[in-house]
Amino acid sequence: MKHSVLNIQEKFSTFDSLWSPKIIAEMNDYQFKLATVQGEFVWHSHTDTDEVFFVIEGALDIEFRDEKITLNSGKMCVIPKGVEHKPYAEKECKIMLVEPRGVVNAGDNDGELTAEEEWV
């Protein structure tokens, strides 16, 4: 078996779109996705799964209906299924998402920021 090593910074250099997660790996039924984000996303939830946000570079705010948290580089948060949230990044921020295969980035809020599944 040949083991592969992924260079996350190289993967980030292959795309420049915002709020459009790109799949870089799978483990069992889970996907690891990279996204560059800036500005405001939409309120949404994922009714069937939890979602992991891991900040690689920059700072990401995540608003909930009752609070707001800030994740800086090296920090992560697990958002339980069904919890409404709205990510926001004042400046460009690079994140990794971990979620089951097939999860749509905008969850239950299908609209212009809904991304197509894409590997890089």
Automatic annotation (TrEMBL):
It comes from Zooshikella harenae. Transmembrane segments: none annotated. It comes from the Bacteria. Residues 39-97 form the Cupin type-2 domain. The lineage of its organism: Bacteria, Pseudomonadati, Pseudomonadota, Gammaproteobacteria, Oceanospirillales. This is Cupin domain-containing protein. CDD domains: cupin_YdbB-like. Gene3D superfamilies: Jelly Rolls.
